[in-house]
User: Which sequence fits this backbone?
């Protein structure tokens, strides 16, 4: 059974992806176990940007089942509309009109149960793709990519995780930012969660929300501070008061930011920063 580590953050821009790709690289260098990076930020996957020498191993479309209403059989009783918890069905009996909004449908099947007239049948809709990449040195990256405009991130993330290719000892989930359903789906089977934050008022506020979420779902976690030296000491006071492990910190550095902007953050990480990631790897070894 793979050891699963999710990298999350309460807000965007904290350096979550920077941390995820560097931790992945550090594990590959400092731990004699196979590791796979999984980009679960399906609305804007960008882990691949840091591995330019990639090749596609496989790609598959992700489809979900949606209902289609046969208006020739439909009596327009509106029972299916009443059953739909996601307001995906619109019915106007006076106009003999019925339709399904595929972007609101969650494939729950309630409408099929509701209909007593065999007026609803299944069809499918493609919501995105799952791609498996070879990123060099026998390393693997899997990515979900949501169709633009689709709100069904959670369904795609679930499919991505269910279709991981190959046997790996460690999985690194790069989660979407925030605390909504896609994040909950990403961390649902994680053995440990690392929260990446920044020492700013916004960073601390959203960190607190994410800590509340992880405690609600009973997930063990620690915190990594990026851009240390900016803002104030509130984040450290919060971690001490709540008895939360500080796994490490990376000082704010224009050089480091420059490497990130050019996509070289993995290949050219400064030695003093590489040591910080190695310390996080040693922390994870103790958990596993």
Assistant:
């Amino acid at each position: 059974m793979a050891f699963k580590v999710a990298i999350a953050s309460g807000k965007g821009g904290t350096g979550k992806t920077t941390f995820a790709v560097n931790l992945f690289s550090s594990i590959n260098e400092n731990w004699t176990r196979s590791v796979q990076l999984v980009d679960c930020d399906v609305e804007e996957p960008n882990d691949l940007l840091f591995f330019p020498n990639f090749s596609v191993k496989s790609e598959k479309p992700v489809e979900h089942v949606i209902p289609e209403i046969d208006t020739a059989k439909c009596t327009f009783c509106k029972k299916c509309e009443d059953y739909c918890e996601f307001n995906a069905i619109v019915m106007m009996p006076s106009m003999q009109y019925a339709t399904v909004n595929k972007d609101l449908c969650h494939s729950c099947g309630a409408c099929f149960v509701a209909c007593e007239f065999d007026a609803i049948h299944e069809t499918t809709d493609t919501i995105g793709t799952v791609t498996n990449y070879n990123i060099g040195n026998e390393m693997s990256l899997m990515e979900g990519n949501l169709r633009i405009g689709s709100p069904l991130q959670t369904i795609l993330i679930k499919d991505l995780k269910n279709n991981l290719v190959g046997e790996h000892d460690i999985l690194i989930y790069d989660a979407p930012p925030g605390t909504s359903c896609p994040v909950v789906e990403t961390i649902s089977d994680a053995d440990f969660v690392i929260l990446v934050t920044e020492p700013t008022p916004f960073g601390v506020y959203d960190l607190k929300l994410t800590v509340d979420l992880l405690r609600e779902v009973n997930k063990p976690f620690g915190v990594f501070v990026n851009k240390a030296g900016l803002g104030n000491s509130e984040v450290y006071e919060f971690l001490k008061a709540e008895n939360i492990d500080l796994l490490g910190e990376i000082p704010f550095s224009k050089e480091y930011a420059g490497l990130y902007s050019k996509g070289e953050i993995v290949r050219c990480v400064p030695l003093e920063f590489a040591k910080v990631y190695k310390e996080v790897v040693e922390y994870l070894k103790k958990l596993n």
